[in-house]
Task: inverse folding
């Protein structure tokens, strides 16, 4: 099975981290490739960045279709363009926010999300509502760090994330915590150890769920909202 | 007051119809300009089209900012890119779906939406949820016509829309009906007469609500999700 | 256009303040008149007061109809009797709570309400639910002041309101704040400056929305819940 | 225990029917008195009628307090003024819509309401939402009869109600049916026999629930929204 | 009228306390019997305990049917097996969580629940959702005491419960408080006095509501989800 | 990886069908075992049957833990006892209703469920609510066949299921259909072909999701509602 993970921003170091996370959990027989568009915002921190990443993201999906990929993970926690990707891909597509929330909902009655900047909080809350997770998602928290700070070695970004995860457990009564940025993918194991609750990375969740869907012989329904785009 | 109405698809005849609707209701002292990007899908009928119209839409907003417009209406019923527009515009921005639903909610306890194609139904339902209108919006109906059929003289598109509006009143118990496509803007008065209930066009609603916001001295809050995009 | 703003309590100083707020934002060509019934509670602070203000309020609407007003604002944040007013008025009617929430929802992803007394909190929460704003309304706060304290010069009521607005921004993550009492109408500009977020007065919002509805040629649907009262 | 049932309209024949229903189910030791204000609409069929019945209704509650009643039932399915009654009564107060829905929710997973006129449908749906019964209430139906037609001997009102109850069972999957008008109180037993599902009259439900609350030593909390009205 | 109260755990001292609470509020002519299965968990503190108590609980209901009981209260705040009991009993059945929430909703706009252990919080929240009380239930709190600690004389369990009730009033804005464990039944009167708000015990609420249902001639609908189990 | 699928009823032919479905989709390296308790209802058709299957189900989980299984699927569409299983299992546990709904939500904006008997409809609707799928689940339909009819060769059960699936597509606007009974597991491929939309079997979905969770290194959080049962 061939799965394409698309980081829709243009920061290659983040793509590599994402690819490593994905590869680490891929099943026997699954080939995971992680890519990013060249021409895209360096990070996605708001509605405008999200809109500007879409042409590049969709281009990667089209290339993926040509190359025979069977499923796709959109590796940005705002789940940008997932509907559009579903319209043009034959196989299933999932965003990492949806993947992480769906995963959390099967192992915990309630979870918190720890994201980067406060401006992302309403966006994640709206995604939770869209996915029916508005009750399970007990709180969306921001560690108050810009996305690219996660790429800087030696900074205090990791510590800030950990502190926020600990607060999520202590204050929100959450039984699991979701990392709300693809750039946090490498922190999962460490944070699970530090906190004693399952810490969920959307990239890992996304790859495993796409494996599950493809393995079940399922793909996006073309009988409605995700039908192939009409020719103009 | 200068208001820019952006039709995010590239069909000029639709822009003209939209512009005429807008001009017909503009208050004394309001100047309304209707534009569309050159490089955009001819119609927006799904998530993919929606994604592909965003660069052109945002470009028009940027040009509008340079030209000193004080408020914006995004004239596509999927409300594409409204969040992104809000981040880069100084004045208020509203999509025609949001505008029409908000308007309907003040004159009726329940309304139906009549859109073009069935594939749009789940998208409009999701917008209704986002705007808190999931209870007021009693049903989203499709007249089973492609968007551009509304531009063809002599077709039966108008009749199909009317029949669906009549069904909305008779079967859904709706007290008002919203036209779910900017291309239906010229049908409003005729449909109100035919059906006896208020029929709401989102372009009209959008222009009047932007006038209201600007007149109240209000603009998009920059204190959260709609803050100016971060420089990269 | 002639708009009638009815303060449903009998405190004339409040009516004057409301009238001044309304006049300050009325568009060119809009005539706004503010009235209050003689025989009504001095302030509306609970369900009982709300019930007791209704005969007087409805009387003012009937007089307004006779005088040819085209739209109405009910200037009490409990939105008392709005449904009844809609049944007897030809033009549109809006309460200032509904008006303020609808307005806030177009410029912010989340807002708080600052009202007077804690006993009003559940009433405002119920209105938010009725209007579909239960998710956008992040918190209803009480400044712990009786309504009429806002009319006393030299008191500390204004400071208490400001402090609560500041807490709304800091603690609730709200991007806008609504003033939950018509008696706070004169504080809007000052509070916006003090806090840096849009502060919304329902009287202003109500006048502008009624202008928008009338300007769009829309009135309350008579095809259902708001039909003209049946003769007995 | 003394319970006062207030029919808030002025139709004495309806008050008598209500009183008979109430008396038929009162427990040993419960004295039920049914009254109506003199000066009130003859029937309550909309928001305006509802508003106009309130002064008379509240007057009856005040008289009830003076006479030592321990609990109150407001016998109109719109539950008019219940909040105001709760503020001025020492004992518990319930409206017949709330009482019927609460009762139905304990014996059925879903119920329908059969009311008189279509214009009442949105009002009952809003009450269902207020009481948290929006999921349990599968549908509100109108038998298309004016309230006072229920008082006319020899009419076809009863048959129309029965037909609608049968449709509720067959089409809505409802396990119980609520009669949405105090004037239907005498039809309950007959309709239960005809349909094979529990048919619930709000007057009966209201009297039994007030007995339950008083018997449990419980009264309206005065610690919030239902506190005693403030002196002006 | 004969009502059976089943404590589904095997701790006899708790059954006695429950029986005393029930007897104290039973109406004239109501005979209340409290029982518990021999073979059941000593306390019910989680999903597993809940599952393991069901065979014994259902056995008590079957015995109750043979003995002619007309209604049943399931006296564990998780409301275990209530649906199953409804299928095999002729008369109405209510769990004490449902009974307490329904009762609270008629005397307060919002309430808190004080339960024993934090692990029960999500279970009670899910019940609130099932009963449509998710908005009225402002918060579920845990006093951090195991169920059986309530049976130990001289411990500090009572004080911990009282402190949590006080916090519910002060911090949650709750107008009433529900005791979320049948083992707290004897604390109700004391806690009401200490806090000044209605404190509701589910056993009391359950007995009074079953009296109400039986007195109204109502029983579980057999026309759907609660139909008699199919013979295999 | 070793996954145990427990059919909680005692009908061996159904267990075999379930085992075959599970085996057909198991990934390389996954060993799936399907079992059922000896002492359980022959089919689970209501709350009572559900309660009576729990001791046997939990016994199978305990045996599974002793045998080193890493994850569990509860193969009854009512998802009986999943919470209890989660408390006593080390690895993840999912019910087939939850699994199917979660799966459908990633490939379709809306789905219908086709179950066996009408009495199951409210139970499935309640599960949809619990899982946050109340908006995605457009309708629960019953094919009006008892569970065990699916085991009888030569009957018309299959045709009835197919007809209901076709109605779900045509009338509900559903983009995918879930089979609401483990006994329908063998019909999936045929129904997908007949209808042109994804048809989802919960057993398949459950096995693939448990593989995904185990593969991601995730297990039920023990930090809250699903903590290990307390020793008594």
Result:
């Amino acid at each position: 099975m061939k799965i394409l993970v698309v980081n829709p921003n243009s920061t290659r170091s983040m793509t590599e981290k994402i690819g490593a996370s994905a590869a680490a959990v891929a099943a026997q027989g699954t080939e995971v490739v992680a890519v990013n568009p060249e021409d895209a915002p360096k990070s996605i921190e708001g509605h405008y960045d999200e809109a500007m990443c879409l042409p590049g993201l969709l281009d990667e999906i089209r290339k993926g279709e040509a190359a025979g990929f069977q499923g796709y993970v959109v590796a940005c926690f705002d789940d940008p363009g997932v509907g559009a990707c579903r319209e043009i891909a034959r196989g299933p597509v999932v965003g990492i926010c949806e993947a992480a929330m769906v995963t959390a909902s099967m192992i915990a009655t309630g979870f918190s999300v720890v994201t980067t900047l406060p401006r992302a909080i309403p966006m994640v809350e709206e995604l939770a509502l869209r996915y029916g997770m508005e009750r399970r998602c007990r709180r969306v928290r921001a560690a108050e760090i810009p996305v690219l700070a996660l790429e800087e070695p030696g900074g205090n970004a990791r510590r800030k994330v950990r502190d926020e995860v600990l607060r999520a457990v202590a204050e929100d009564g959450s039984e699991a915590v979701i990392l709300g940025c693809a750039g946090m993918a490498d922190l999962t194991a460490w944070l699970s150890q530090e906190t004693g609750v399952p810490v969920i990375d959307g990239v890992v969740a996304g790859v495993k769920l796409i494996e599950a869907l493809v393995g079940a012989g399922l793909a996006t329904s073309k009988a409605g909202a995700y039908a192939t785009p009409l020719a103009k």
